[in-house]
Write a structure and sequence with these properties.
Blueprint (H helix, E strand, L loop, with lengths): L2 E4 L4 E5 L4 E6 L5 E7 L44 E4 L10 E9 L18 E10 L4 E10 L4 E10 L5 E13 L5 E8 L2 E9 L3 E7 L11 E5 L10 E7 L4 E7 L5 E7 L6 E3 L4 E3 L2 E7 L2 H16 L13 E3 L1 H4 L5 H14 L3 E4 L28 H10 L3 E6 L3 E2 L4 H5 L19 E2 L5 H16 L5 E4 L21 H19 L4 E4 L9 H4 L4 E3 L6 H11 L8 E6 L12 H8 L3 E5 L7 H16 L1 H6 L1 E6 L6 E7 L5 E8 L9 E3 L9 E7 L11 E4 H6 L2 E4 L14 E8 L1
Parallel strand pairs: 21-22, 21-30, 22-23, 23-26, 26-27, 27-28, 28-29, 29-30
Antiparallel strand pairs: 1-2, 2-3, 3-4, 5-10, 6-7, 7-8, 8-9, 9-19, 9-20, 10-17, 10-18, 11-12, 11-14, 13-16, 14-15, 15-20, 16-17, 24-25, 31-32, 32-33, 33-38, 34-37, 35-36, 35-38
Helix pairs in contact: 6-7, 9-10
The structure holds alpha-D-galactopyranose (GLA).
């Protein structure tokens, strides 16, 4: 068993040789945390890492004791993991160990997405009961350690065992106490069209947090935090990261307390949150995933990529090769009809595309974004024959057909809004704020979820639809649950998410063969919660190759390449106006789930030939691009270039990309050192698409050792690539072991 209980010292140790978490029951019954991080010998005791004879904070306020579920009001003045208000209005809790159960496997979480196992041997779970009889509260802390992964999943379940109602005000999914304050905090922050830039700074005394109060995780902050030792880089050094499997309001925070240690916590954002727990009722927090590595930030990303790609994403498409798609949005926006779409699809199939996606504008009377969301019936003006014949015509060309939907929204100009104005979120008697001329439906109401299931299922059943892009283009204002009583309005945001997850669950189980991609104006809800339903997400509305270099670099800290939609679009780019070479647009988009977002009819002959070669190349190496180990080599942030690579699991194949952002005169010698190769293997290194005609392009042979120690030559080029150079130029090398 990967979880051991020592009766003599009352210690619980979660261990698997990759990571350890050691907890101990203190003398006063509180559950202490002695260690989290580096793997420790499971046969030893670690009581010496905590206080001996700990009987609470009496006379020793502020003592930096590590606790598994810190509460407020008893002498620990740092940020709490749990605040529950009792019948008397007090929030003081005294959670005392009652018992625990260790079992193979991992149970699911009520109504919430979570990581899972396919075989109980893949993980071990302990449920630890902590009770406060005065409050009538039972807290079950659930901890799962996965076999051979440096990760631990954690959540809490609260049960009201008393006979009066309780109000949960804070219930964090994870709280970790680290022994000192010498950490850098790295978070992924941005905005629409520039999501997930890594920001790193040393922790200072006090609190530093990121979060969301928008009803979605948002473009602004990713629901994760990385704590890195100051010297930790991509490949070396210690780090610990926590990621929240949730898609709504969240808080991720690190606090360096007055006596020096760090406390990190992540979970539902406590602002505005209040959940009434009636006698007998229970509440489950979302799950947090904790990763530890001594191999730098890259080691933490490896841990998340493996777990999220293999045991969070689920369904038929989890392991299947994802199709190369062409999305209609930037090609034609709202301006299309049946024949135009079929012509686009004809152009796409000629390029080697496998899936044609019809984006926004196919329903109601939607010629722009001022109307029709909610009216999920085909617009017969544009598509007189309907979706069925359109899908059939596209499939007849040899493509699959996919469709855009935005189920959670309603336009004030729609039949749905006319029939059910009360289904749109808003506070009765107050005006509603519109954004993109749309309102959000109140998915905390079960009848709204039922209606959407029926409406969307009717669409998906009406044609041969293989793929769905599920968008969500605005955040929630005037939050108010129409069916909730005044005293339960603090539950609204979480209930919205529970309703949204329920809709996802119903539709993905009714249409198990459909490949779902989540989207929220690009990466506004790209989070582990969504990954549990949709194995891929539209990473950003910004399709410019140079912007994408930074966006995909950032997203890859947490998310695997198999989850990142990445498309080539036309130039000048629609978001930033930049003109980049077609080769570079592809070189960046290859590292993700590849596609195009343009009108093939507008391409020149040479462009068509180049795209045919790009798609053939991606399809040939798809397994590597979608499932290989992704290694970040050079950050494009604040530099003139960026580079990354993918490596096959057996380390016999790899593809490296380097993008020059701005070219500079008289550049100094520069070599790109690779990582993750087998030092004992010899690789054939072939530039792609290959040096200019006439040159032999089967490349040179180089040892894995020298490729990692000295690297590929960028200045001067070694081996020569034949790539043109200049601003926004790119190079790709294919490595294959002899
Ligand atoms: C959002 C998406 C885009 C596109 C439009 C359609 O912005 O992110 O990709 O689907 O909506 O309105």
């Amino acid at each position: 068993m990967a979880i051991t209980w020592r009766d003599d010292s009352r210690e619980l140790h979660l261990h698997n040789g990759r990571v350890s978490l050691v907890l101990a029951v203190h003398e006063n019954g509180w559950l202490g945390q002695l260690h989290v991080g580096a793997p420790l010998d499971p046969t030893a005791s670690y009581r010496h890492l905590g206080p001996t004879d700990f009987r609470g904070f009496a006379n020793r306020l502020d003592e930096p004791v590590g606790l598994a579920v810190p509460t407020a009001g008893s002498g620990d003045f740092r940020v709490p993991a749990l605040v529950v208000e009792g019948a008397d209005g007090s929030t003081v809790l005294d959670l005392v160990y009652r018992g625990h159960r260790i079992a193979a496997g991992k149970p699911g979480l009520d109504g919430l997405p979570s990581t899972y196992v396919e075989d109980p041997a893949e993980a071990t779970t302990v449920g630890i009961d902590l009770a406060d009889p005065i409050a009538g509260l039972l807290v079950t802390l659930s901890l799962t350690i996965f076999e051979d992964r440096p990760v631990i999943a954690r959540s809490m379940r609260l049960v009201n065992e008393g006979d009066t109602g309780l109000i949960i005000r804070t219930a964090m999914s994870a709280s970790l106490d680290l022994p000192d304050g010498a950490w850098d905090l790295l978070t992924l922050s941005g905005a629409w069209a520039r999501e997930r830039r890594p920001h790193r700074a040393a922790l200072l005394p006090g609190r530093r947090s990121v979060g969301s109060l928008r009803g979605a995780t948002g473009h602004g902050q990713d629901p994760s935090l990385f704590l890195l030792r100051p010297g930790t880089d991509e490949a070396h050094g210690e780090g610990l990261a926590i990621s929240l499997v949730y898609s709504g309001n969240f808080l991720a925070e690190a606090e360096v307390g007055p006596r020096g240690p760090t406390r990190a916590r992540i979970g539902l954002h406590p602002d505005g949150f209040a959940w009434t727990l009636e006698p007998g009722a229970s509440f489950t927090t979302p799950e947090a995933v904790i990763a530890w590595s001594a191999d730098g930030v890259g080691g933490l990303s490896d841990a998340f990529h493996g777990l999220f790609g293999e045991r969070l994403a689920r369904g038929a498409w989890r392991d299947r090769p994802r199709p190369v798609l062409l999305n209609s949005w930037e090609g034609v926006y709202f301006d299309f009809d049946h024949d135009r779409l079929v012509e686009m699809a004809r152009g796409a199939v000629d390029l080697g595309v496998e899936l044609f996606v019809l984006d926004d504008g196919w329903f109601g009377g939607r010629d722009d974004d001022t109307s029709s969301l909610g009216d999920w019936e085909v617009d017969r003006r544009k598509l007189p024959a309907g979706l069925g014949p359109l899908a059939a015509d596209i499939e007849a060309l040899g493509l699959r057909f996919g469709l855009w939907i935005e189920p959670e929204m309603v336009s004030p100009r729609s039949r749905l809004f006319e029939a059910h104005p009360d289904w749109a979120i808003g506070v009765p008697g107050r005006p509603r704020t519109e954004s993109r001329q749309q309102l959000v439906l109140d998915l905390s109401r079960p009848e709204v979820v039922d209606h959407l299931e029926t409406a969307i299922a009717a669409v998906l059943g009406s044609a041969s639809i293989s793929y769905v892009k599920w968008d969500m283009n605005r955040n929630i204002t005037e939050p108010y649950g129409g069916a909730l009583p005044p005293e339960r309005q603090g539950e609204f945001f979480h209930r919205y998410l529970l309703g949204t997850y329920e809709l996802w669950r119903r539709l993905t189980s009714r249409f198990p063969e459909v490949l779902f991609e989540s989207c929220a104006g690009g990466g506004g809800r790209f989070d582990p919660g969504m990954l549990a339903f949709a194995p891929q997400a539209w990473t950003s509305d910004d399709t410019d190759a140079i912007e994408r270099l930074a966006i995909q670099w950032g997203a890859s800290h947490v998310y695997p390449l198999s989850s990142m939609g990445a498309h080539v679009s036309a130039v000048p780019n629609h978001q930033v106006g930049r003109i980049t070479p077609l080769a570079t647009r592809a070189a960046v988009a290859f590292f993700g789930v590849f596609g195009y977002e343009l009108d093939p009819r507008a391409l020149s002959g040479p462009e068509r030939a180049e795209i045919r070669a790009q798609i053939a190349f991606y399809r040939e190496h798809r397994e590597l691009f979608q499932r290989g180990r992704f290694v970040r080599l050079r950050s494009p942030l604040g530099r003139d270039d960026g580079a990354w690579m993918v490596i096959s699991p057996d380390r016999r194949g790899a593809i490296v990309a380097h993008v020059r952002i701005l070219a500079r005169p008289v550049p100094p010698p520069d070599r790109l050192r690779l990582r993750g190769l087998d030092p004992g293997l010899t690789y054939r290194v072939s530039p792609w698409p290959g040096p200019s005609a006439g040159d032999a392009s089967d490349g040179v042979r180089r040892g894995g050792d020298v490729l990692m120690a000295a690297g590929l030559g960028l200045v001067p080029e070694d081996p020569p690539t034949g790539a043109p150079g200049g601003d926004f130029s790119s190079r790709i090398w294919v490595l294959s072991a002899d």
